[in-house]
Amino acid sequence: MPNIDLHSHSTASDGILSPTQLLAHAASRGVQVLALTDHDDVAGLVEADFAAHEENILLIKGVEISVTWHGRTLHIIGLGIDPSHAPLAKGLQKIRDGRTERARLIAAQLDKYGIHGSFEGACAQAGESKLIGRTHFARFLVESGHAKDVRSVFKKFLVKGKPGYTPHIWTTLEEAIGWIRGSGGQAVIAHPARYKLGKNLLEQLFHDFCELGGTGIEVVSSSHTPDQIRQFARLATRFNLLASSGSDYHGPGESYFDLGRLPSLPSECTPIWHDWNIPLDRSNQADNKIIGQ
User: Fold this and answer.
1) 80 with 180: CB under 8 angstroms?
2) Residues 83, 87, 90: CA angle, nearest 5 degrees
3) Per residue in 230-281, pLDDT tens?
4) Considering only CA atoms, which of 73, 70, 72 is closest in space to residue 39?
5) Distance between CA atoms of 47 and 282, rounded to whole angstroms?
């Protein structure tokens, strides 16, 4: 089976590496199939497409869409999308506009706590990216000495009940899945264990997701324990969903798993790539197919 990672980020959202650097790093780790799934943006896919050909990697064009469901934030990944699909592009732009508004509110909350200049600091961390996320604020807080590393930020700041937390309404689950399906892609629930849903809400999420045309779930994720991998493998089978595998890679020092180091999917799962016709021999670049338009 080829080395596959279907969840990664670049500087087009909150990753550390540019799309070109990300693909080079993936190649150095033996990754043969990589999905670039930046948050609410597809701006990195053109560069990633070129770099994928240079590195002889099969690129899966993707995106990770922020969703509000039952008052909770979820992330839905689109795999094999057409980034030029007008409803998808328009919907993502609306989400990004909301991100900027949220960033100003986060900065105002941190200012009340005595941490000043966080909006400008987060913008500087974002660099050329037009998307400002909590990770950019986290990097600013580390750089300004308020936390030792990005992971510890999310224990002290930016989460519910802590300084810098700001609630926000994203798009709906129905809209996100509709945009993905309309663009020719497959919708996947990202890192489901992170949402800390109780049994009843988890059941409801899977029911709603399937009813709306969702395709799969991330069974293997860098934030999943072995027990959680087994749990979501069983749920994937029960709900007749395909299983995905992704590291959620953001860059050196900020990811639990490096690219190319994911454990295998449990044997009872049907991989989301089972009908993608992935060539096992990647030596002939002329035969490489880019998944997504």
Assistant:
1) no
2) 85
3) 999 999 999 999 999 999 999 998 777 899 999 999 999 999 999 998 875 5
4) 73
5) 20
pLDDT of 284 > 60? The answer is no
Instruction: Give 193's Cβ-side CA count (13 Å radius).
Output: 16
Q: How far apart are CA 37 and CA 189, in angstroms?
A: 13
115 CB-near residues (< 8 Å, 6+ apart): 141, 144, 146, 163, 164
Cα–Cα distance measured from residue 292 to residue 62, given in angstroms and rounded to the nearest whole number: 8
- Strands of the sheet with 186-189, listed across from one edge: 4-5, 33-36, 58-69, 72-79, 186-189, 216-221, 242-246
| 174: helix, strand or coil | helix
What is the pLDDT at residue 287? 41
Q: What radius of gyration, in Å, describes the C-alpha atoms of the chain?
A: 18
Cβ-contact 219, 269 below 8 angstroms: yes
Tell me which amino acid residue 138 is: A
pLDDT at 293 over 90: no
CB 77 within 8 Å of CB 64: yes
Q: Are 191 and 75 in contact (CB under 8 A)?
A: yes
- Express each pLDDT in 181-196 by its tens digit: 999 999 999 999 999 9
* pTM more than 0.85: yes
Per-residue pLDDT of 91-137, as tens digits, reads 999 999 998 899 999 999 999 999 999 999 999 998 877 788 899 99
Percent of the chain with pLDDT over 90: 84
